[in-house]
Structures are given as C-alpha cells and as structure tokens.
Design goal:
Layout (H helix, E strand, L loop, with lengths): L13 H31 L4 H30 L3 H9 L1 H14 L5 H30 L2
Helix pairs in contact: 1-2, 1-5, 2-3, 2-4, 3-5, 4-5
Length: 142
C-alpha cells in the first residue's frame, strides 16, 4: 500500500544562496585588499594615530560581522526560517555602515577605496533585497 505523496513548494532561493556565496568570497577579498591599502596609507601618508587605529579596528571587526550575517542568511534560506533571515537583514546595517564610512568618511579615500566599497555596497544591496523578498515568501507559506 502506497502513501499519497504530498508536494511542498520549494521556498529557498538558489539566487540568494549564490549571492551570499559571492558576498562571502568578496568580503574576504575586500578585507584583505583594504588591509593592504591601509598599510600603504600608514607608511606613505601622514596619518593621525588615533583615527588610523580606529579605521583598522573597524575593518578587522567587519569580517566577523559580515560572515555571521552571511551564515545566518544562508541558514535561514536553507532551513526556510524567516527569523534567521530577519537577523541577516539586521546585521546588514553595521556592514552597510562600515562600507559607507570607508567610502565617504575615512581620513584618506583613494579611488580604489571607492571602487572596492562601491562593489561591496552593490553586492550587499542585492543580497539584502533578495533576502527580504525570500523572508516575505517564507512568511506567506507558514
């Protein structure tokens, strides 16, 4: 005797998973390149000691926050849990704030800083919008 097979819609987003993978790789590359740029700035430019240290500390804290954000988003997407995607969206705020700071407010902004942070902002905005749509989609089917 066979049981009837019930079909459930697939709610997780492959596009979101791909965007978060790209964001994870880019976040690591971004921090590595930014640290190299900071070393150059510290050696070649008259950088005040206090702000230099703060900018490096923010950059070092950026990576763990970004990776936790992406982990929560990935788990929320795979497990179809809107609550995890909400935390993913909440942690987007400090990551965006750091990118905007490095884009506009740091002591010396090079054109490569603009390019790196601009690309980061585009990637973050994309996975944030897709994450929000995915979370709404999860809530509709619960």
């Amino acid at each position: 005797m066979h049981r009837p097979v019930t079909s459930y819609p697939v709610l997780s987003s492959v596009f979101l998973a791909l965007l978060m993978l790209i964001d994870k790789i880019w976040s690591i590359v971004f921090v590595a390149l930014s640290l190299l740029i900071f070393v150059y700035k510290g050696l070649a430019l008259p950088y005040p000691t206090g702000p230099y240290a703060y900018e490096i500390i923010i950059l070092i804290l950026y990576l763990p926050v970004a990776l936790v954000r992406l982990f929560l988003g990935d788990m929320g997407n795979e497990l179809t849990r809107a609550k995890l995607l909400v935390w993913f969206l909440v942690l987007t705020v400090p990551v965006l704030a750091a990118n905007v700071y490095y884009l506009i407010l740091q002591i010396y902004v090079f054109s490569i800083d603009v390019a790196l942070n601009g690309l980061s902002l585009i990637i973050i905005m994309l996975d944030t919008v897709v994450g929000l749509v995915t979370a709404i989609n999860f809530c509709r089917y619960v």
